[in-house]
Amino acid sequence: MSDKEQTLSIIKPDAVERNLDNEIKEIFKNNGFQIVKEKKIQIEKSEAEKFYNVHQTKPFYNDLCAYLSSGPIVVMVLEKENAVLANRELMGATNPNDAQEGTIRKKYGISIDKNSVHGSDSLENAKIEINFFFKD
Ligand code: UDP
Ligand code: MG
Q1: How is the chain split into domains, by residue range?
Q2: Which residue, by CA, sits nearest to atom 18 of ligand 1?
Q3: pLDDT bracket for residue 1 (50, 70, 90)
Q4: What is the mean pLDDT of residues 78-107?
Q5: Is 118 labeled as catalytic in the residue annotation?
Q6: Atom 19 (ligand 1) nearest CA
Q7: Kind of pairing between the strands at 73-81 and 4-11
Q8: Rounded distance between C-alpha atoms, residue 61 and residue 55, angstroms
Q9: How far is CA 72 from CA 4, 39, 53, in A?
């Protein structure tokens, strides 16, 4: 048995642009996630830089931040038992080419950068990321 957790999920611009947001939300619901908060927004590049600051030394950082701010995204708080890990499993590997069958990135991801979804990688980061987008 484990407790319910919350994690942050983002449907990235490549998926929103292809009108896949409702389909992807259905996948979360069908896998037992409750979408407790959601909003469709477009962020500034400076906000993307803050959100992805853990990656600031990576060669892909600039392109990643430009990309996340390039179009509308859907930001969601997902709730389920073991939500952080369950969401990472449902998303699949960062590179859609390496993602397992049945995962969101395998199904919809275009490339390692346009990989359709973001998900928090730990409970600690989930709290930080939820607070980043949903400060109540
Ligand atoms: N990314 C990229 N090139 C890389 C590695 C990562 O463009 O070589 C992008 C990709 O969109 C990924 C994001 O940077 O989703 C964050 O990278 P991370 O390693 O945290 O992967 P994730 O947690 O999203 O699976
Ligand atoms: Mg990550």
Answers
A1: 4-44+73-133
A2: 94
A3: low
A4: 98
A5: yes
A6: 94
A7: antiparallel
A8: 6
A9: 29, 10, 20
DSSP reduced 3-state for 11: strand
Model pLDDT, residue 3: 82
Mutate-to-test residue for ligand 1 from 113, 116, 125, 128, highest number of ligand atoms within 8 A of CB: 113
Distances (CA, A) of 58 to 27, 63, 69, 81, 89: 31, 10, 18, 32, 24
For domain 4-44+73-133, give the fold.
Alpha-Beta Plaits (3.30.70)
In the reported structure, the alpha carbon of residue 94 is separated from the centroid of ligand 2 by a whole-number distance in angstroms of 8
Kindly report the pTM of this predicted structure: 0.97
Q: Per-residue DSSP letters for 73-102?
A: EEEEEEEEETHHHHHHHHH--SSGGGPPTT
